[in-house]
Amino acid sequence: MTTGVGIRLPDMPSATGFTDSDFVFMTQNGATVKGTVAQLKTAVAVNATLETFVSGTNFTPGVTTSLTLANTYASPNNIGVFFDGAPQFDFTLSGTTLSFPNGGIPQGTQKIFVKGVVPRSIGAPSAGTVDDNTVKIGSALYRRINSFVDVTDPQWGGCDLAGVADCTTAVRAAIAYALAHGISGVYFPAGTYRFFAASPSLDRKRSIFDVYQLTL
């Protein structure tokens, strides 16, 4: 058995139960560390929220069939619901609405506790941070990325679409890369291209690339 950072651990039998003093092993900031079950429970508790609803203030026993939560938990699996400390399993969650479809909140209930973990958003990658290696090989996007070479790509030197800087080196490098790697298209975005040196023989290469809105 190997951890996420490549440290090999001996094969171990499955645990039959845990106590607060038992050790668990986990990856933290790229290193394999150990901690106790008690520490893990504390960490989970810190990230959990507790919402309390009181009879007469937040609901009426025997009448109220739903509650509005302060947080969005995304799934019923992310919360625990308790009537006066007794766990409940007959409920639904839609957005922030917690509903009790079979009879509502029963008579005699004084407090309802909802304990859950608010889901964290991973968020979108920062602009300019997703590269070719991030895309899953074989996916439709991967095939699209690798179906042609773009002459404005910085790795070729990047063509200037304003027609000011020399595009000769960039275009030659893009065409050479396409030929060497069996790529069927060289893409020229709309713009004006200027060649200070002898112009690349575009007609001779036309069989291996497409030219779109190209102005020389």
TrEMBL record:
> What InterPro entries does the annotation carry?
Pectin_lyas_fold (IPR012334), Pectin_lyase_fold/virulence (IPR011050)
Give the protein name, as stated in the record.
Pectate lyase superfamily protein
Organism encoding this protein: Caballeronia arationis
What's the domain of life for this entry? Bacteria
Stored Gene3D superfamilies: Single-stranded right-handed beta-helix, Pectin lyase-like
